[in-house]
From TrEMBL:
Coiled coil: none annotated. Residues 72-219 form the Aminopeptidase N-like N-terminal domain. PANTHER family: PUROMYCIN-SENSITIVE AMINOPEPTIDASE (PTHR46322). Keywords: Aminopeptidase, Hydrolase, Metal-binding, Metalloprotease, Protease, Zinc. This is Aminopeptidase N. The keyword Ribonucleoprotein does not apply. Residues 578-902 form the Peptidase M1 alanyl aminopeptidase C-terminal domain. SUPFAM superfamilies: Leukotriene A4 hydrolase N-terminal domain, Metalloproteases ('zincins'), catalytic domain. Residues 477-574 form the Peptidase M1 alanyl aminopeptidase Ig-like fold domain. It is an enzyme of class 3 (hydrolase). The keyword Metal-binding applies.
Length: 904
């Protein structure tokens, strides 16, 4: 309702007169529902080719501060034999003014999100004029305003909120776009492709852009506003000069320089590694403050959440720098895997996303650090993706049924999908992978295709049969591999018995065995790696059956080291002893195996004591292992830091079927304390040894050193807190904060102060608040640090911070930093015993669903797994789900998730 009233005020103010139209008959005025919820799921197998396609579309945007007039003329061709079939165009929240077919009045109806035009010839033009209200568009889908700038987000189905069109990825058209700037003036007017004309019309600036590449509507983009411009050029390997433009917030020029570096690195890397050269004369990136996700790969006009562009040492952390590089790479790499070859339908989303994530991971591996990139990727799988696979929203990498497509931009599609591509790479090898990708891009250039098309190209290029491999795309759930082995000293043979099982998920009870490449080596008792003749040249065991035995010839008893480099996204159930883990931790070169070994030492301890959390013995094995790592003078700081990490609660919860939050939290804190106490001297030395010298520079070596320094400081604080040495703890942290010159260090100190409730907490929070309240992006850390404090009291603090003048529920970054952080990264607060965490989340979701349903559905996620909570918590969480469900006009996205949870 509010929307309608606001729009009315806007329209009656002055603008109706200016363009000489009477808006009294518009749909907003009549109070027609703006929502288009039907709660209907679409099935993958129901795909039908479109009856018509559009070959060309000309768009004219008449931007005005309060509303925008969109005129479009599209050329349509009938594809179906059925001459009676009407043309059905998608549209949402549009106020339609006129429709002409070949310039003539025509018969049409407008209903349930569709414009249906009857009696059309085989080939014709449709001209449409409609009005939209970007300033009122808080969903951030379609055309909206972000801090005074106009921008668009069309993936997956936002174009229909701009004008009526065939808004589906298998309709590829050439776009010509004219943007007429608002009366108040405007900096730049951008769209995809090349600028072909610009000038002035009746006192207003306009620009016309032509994109020579046919594309689906989800890749359309428009930006209009005032920005600072970072420009540069890149010479492609064939000698063409590409002009690069990066548009950032006014005053943020310096903060854009790293992103520009990253654009050039990406362009170079795609040439070097995959022989892919940029295909237009310009490449534009725009950073905006209001954005639902990370970034968007619109052809030659990428639009980014400013958090993935703007960095400098004073305001951004090492992680921010790393992420900018990876997201810039990701969107740039979409130019081929996504834009040039696109999707037939949204069920194929992972075709572009998983391949592009794999490519961005390889980029980060080559230009930043392979070990760090890999360990991060594994973390995402084992914390978030395994949880998703065990949740009511579990879905295959290629889903079968979707109600709200926005719910499927998930860690399963992106990250498990990337693991699937990585397995393919492992199985067929780098050379065949390159050949396959080249064949795929060549064969399907300019086409909208499917996962099967991709696999057929890969199979053809490598001459490997991938039939069974496709099960990775069709089966949800995390396979569990059980491994048992025995050594026969007489025969000098080791027998490895493997078994695999994928647990049933809601919509798939029976699962078939998948192809599991197991990167393997064997360790002797004194830590030497041996390679038995039976192990294939690439060190891979291909495990494809429910059960299978493998035999290896070894002169002495050896320990099998399985899934090196996390060679498949599965859970391994192997009865390694603590000593086995210590052996692997000490002698295996593989970063993943080392980190995994320390993690599983801890897991073993946690599992053994879940039932007796109130009476815990000293975790001797863990302390011994940590001590050993700390004393290794030659250790790589990056790995040392990773290995000394105690897994977060979100990872530990995957150890239980029914989650006992209280026991897990108690045990985890206990382990942390015991390690800190036992190794205090080592951590103190380490802290001193890794102290910053000189001013901040971002690179992997310095970043690793800082991580290690921060880990040491944290462990010192844990010990001092345990000693009740409050003054010393506060002094150390305050000092660290004040003496540092960069955000990474300051945030480390601030986090310790808040999470361990140190005496300097209020002082540092105040200092941070005063310094950064004018810089929303940086200020988000103020919210996030407090929202992730592992205490039940955090719920009250989050509630209070929602009233902070810097909080804005219409900005997704603010919501994610505060409520999202509590919901997704703070199991202690979210699962507060009294249900206050659930209640707050539910309140926010109900409110936010009316403002930005996409973000509402996202932060709701942790509640869906309520059946894994203890009885009391499950009941509290379930009641909140029911409460949300009873809300009027619930969005498709929130509805779909709640239904899945309640029916699970
Ligand atoms: N395709 C984008 C990417 O992964 C992500 C994306 C999908 C997106 N839908 C979105 C971004 C909606 C912003 C808003 O690169
Ligand atoms: Zn992507």
């Amino acid at each position: 309702m509010l929307k309608i009233i606001k729009l009315l005020q806007v329209l009656t103010d002055s603008n109706t007169l200016k363009i000489g139209r009477d808006y009294s008959a518009n749909c907003f005025y009549k109070g027609k529902s703006m929502k288009n919820n039907n709660y209907k799921a679409v099935k993958r197998l129901d795909y039908r080719a479109p009856d018509f396609t559009a070959t060309d579309i000309e768009l004219e945007f008449n931007l005005s501060d309060d509303y925008t007039i969109v005129k479009s003329t599209a050329h349509y061709i009938r594809l179906t034999e059925d001459k009676k079939a009407p043309l059905c165009l998608d549209g949402e929240d549009l106020e339609l003014h006129s429709v002409f077919v070949d310039g003539l009045v025509c018969k049409y109806t407008e209903e349930k999100g569709q414009l249906i035009i009857e009696d059309v010839p085989d080939e014709f033009d449709v001209s449409i004029e409609n009005v939209i209200a970007p300033a009122l568009n808080t969903t951030l889908m379609g055309l909206y305003k972000s801090c005074g700038c106009f921008c668009t987000q069309c993936e997956p189905q936002g174009f229909r909120r701009i004008t009526y069109f065939l808004d589906r990825p298998d309709v590829l058209a050439k776009y010509k776009v004219t943007i007429i700037g608002p009366e108040s003036g405007c900096g730049v007017l951008l769209s995809n492709g090349n600028l072909v004309e610009s000038g002035e019309k009746q006192g207003r600036r306009y620009c016309t852009w032509v994109d020579p590449f046919p594309k689906p509507s989800y890749l359309f983009a428009l930006v209009a506003g005032s920005f600072d411009l970072v420009s540069d050029t890149f010479k492609t390997k064939s000698g063409r000069e590409v002009s690069l433009q990066l548009y950032v917030d006014r005053g943020a020029y310096e903060r854009g320089l790293w992103a520009m570096e990253c654009i050039k690195q990406s362009m170079k890397w795609d040439e070097d590694r995959f022989n892919l050269e940029y295909d237009l004369d310009n490449f534009k990136v725009v950073a905006v403050d209001f954005f639902n996700q990370g970034a968007m790969e619109n052809k030659s006009l990428n639009i980014f959440n400013s958090i993935y562009v703007l960095v400098d040492p004073k305001s951004a952390t090492d992680t921010n720098f790393f992420n900018v590089q990876s997201v810039i790479g990701h969107e740039y790499f979409h130019n081929y895997t996504g834009d040039r070859v696109t999707l037939r339908d949204w069920f194929q989303l992972s075709l572009k996303e998983s391949l592009t994530v794999f490519r961005d991971q390889e980029f980060s591996s080559d230009v930043a650090s392979r070990a760090l990139t890999r360990l991060h990727a594994v973390d995402v799988i084992r914390s978030a993706q395994f949880a998703e696979d065990a949740s009511p929203m579990a879905h295959p990498v290629r889903p079968e049924e979707v109600m709200e497509m926005n719910n499927f931009y998930t860690v399963t599609i992106y990250d498990k999908g990337a693991e699937v591509i990585r397995m393919l790479h492992t199985i067929i090898g780098e050379d065949n992978f390159k050949k396959g990708l080249a064949l795929y891009l060549d064969r399907y250039d300019g086409k909208a295709v499917t996962v099967d098309d991709f696999l057929s190209a890969m199979s053809e290029a490598s001459a490997v049969d991938l039939t069974q491999f496709t099960r990775w795309y069709s089966q949800a759930g995390t396979p569990v591999v059980t491994a048992k082995w025995a050594y026969d000293a007489n025969e000098k043979k080791l027998t490895l018995d493997l078994e695999q099982k994928t647990p049933p998920t809601l919509s798939q009870k029976e699962k078939d065995p998948v192809v599991i490449p197991i990167r393997t080596s064997f360790l002797t008792g004194d830590g030497k790696e041996v390679t038995p003749p039976e192990l294939s040249a690439n060190g891979i065991i291909m495990f494809t059956k429910d059960k299978e035995s493998f035999t290896f010839t070894c002169d002495e008893e050896v320990l099998p080291v399985l899934f090196k480099d996390f060679s498949a996204p599965v859970k391994l159930d192997a009865h390694y002893s603590d000593d086995d883990y210590k052996l692997m931790l000490e002698y295996c070169e593989d970063p993943f195996i080392r980190k995994n070994s320390s993690e599983f030492l801890i897991n073993n301890y946690v599992k053994d004591h879940l039932e007796s959390a109130d009476n815990l013995p000293v975790p001797a094995s863990i302390i011994e292992a940590f001590s050993h790592v700390l004393s290794d003078k030659n250790g790589d700081p990056l790995l040392t830091c990773q290995v000394l990490n105690i897994p977060p609660l979100s990872v530990l919860t995957e150890l239980c079927h029914k989650i006992d939050f209280d026991a897990l939290h108690t045990i985890r804190s206990f382990i942390e304390k015991e390690i800190a106490k036992a190794l205090f001297a080592d951590f103190s030395n380490l802290y001193a040894k890794t102290k910053a010298t000189g001013s901040y520079v971002y690179n992997i070596k310095e970043m690793s050193k800082r991580s290690l320094n921060h880990l040491a400081l944290k462990m010192m604080i844990v010990k001092l807190k345990d000693d009740k040495d409050e003054d010393k703890a506060a002094d150390l942290v305050r000092d660290h904060y004040k003496k540092s010159d960069n955000m990474t260090a300051k945030l480390c100190a601030l986090t310790l102060a808040v999470h361990y409730d140190l005496l300097c907490k209020e002082e540092l929070l105040k200092e941070f608040e005063d310094k950064w309240s004018g810089d929303p992006l940086v200020f988000d850390n103020f919210f996030r640090v407090q929202a992730t404090a592992p205490s039940e009291d955090t719920v009250k603090i989050v509630r209070k911070l929602m009233k902070h003048p810097c909080f804005d529920k219409t900005n997704p970054n603010r919501v994610r930093a505060l409520v999202g952080a509590m919901a997704l990264s703070n199991p202690v607060a979210l699962n507060a015993k009294d249900g206050s965490g659930y209640a707050l989340l539910s309140e926010v979701v109900r409110d936010l669903d009316k403002v930005n349903p996409q973000v509402a559905a996202r932060i709701l996620t942790p509640l869906l797994s309520f059946k894994r909570f203890d009885e009391a918590r499950a009941e509290l969480a379930r009641n909140e789900l029911l409460r949300i469900k009873s809300e009027k006009d619930l969005s498709n996205g929130v509805f779909e998730k709640i239904e899945a949870a309640l029916n699970s």
